[in-house]
Amino acid sequence: MKHTIKLIAISTLLLSATAVQADWKSDLKDAAIQKGNNTAAEKLGLATTAPAGAKVYIISPKNGDTVSSPVTVQFGLSGAGVAPAGTQVENTGHHHLLIDDPAVDLTKALPASDQVVHFGKGQTETSLKLKPGKHTLQLIFADWKHQPFNPSLGSDKITITVK
Ligand SMILES: [Cu+2]
């Protein structure tokens, strides 16, 4: 009797060890598939579907404000989350600030320049040095590979005057 109990215990142990191994293998397989899909999406420039109902807006300054430089720009987002660039988590992305209306192709990964500023660490505000005069600001929220969502998620374009 004692012997039987021992055998059952051992076979239970073996069964759970096999289950753990299968889990581990399928996790590894899933990770490999995900990595392959990510590489393909990046190479092919596939846009990520925009999180439903997400909105991007500039909290401050407000359209028409007169401000002094440096200007604190606060980024607003609802219906989606912020994640650092390169981190693929569903329904997340990072902010990009377009300064003075640069031409950008919203179907491709955004370039980086003085006028297209990436916030790849997941920042939600910045301090911006601007020359005196009128300037426009617009946010574009893009996915882990800097590519705008489909449909694209952007704020209204605001105009401010720097003293
Ligand atoms: Cu970016």
TrEMBL record:
Secretion signal span: 1-22
Keywords, ordered alphabetically: Signal
Residue ranges occupied by any DUF4399 domain in the UniProt entry: 73-163
Xref: Pfam families: DUF4399 (PF14347)
Superkingdom of source: Bacteria
Keyword Signal set for record: yes
Name the UniProt record assigns to this protein: DUF4399 domain-containing protein
Species: Stenotrophobium rhamnosiphilum
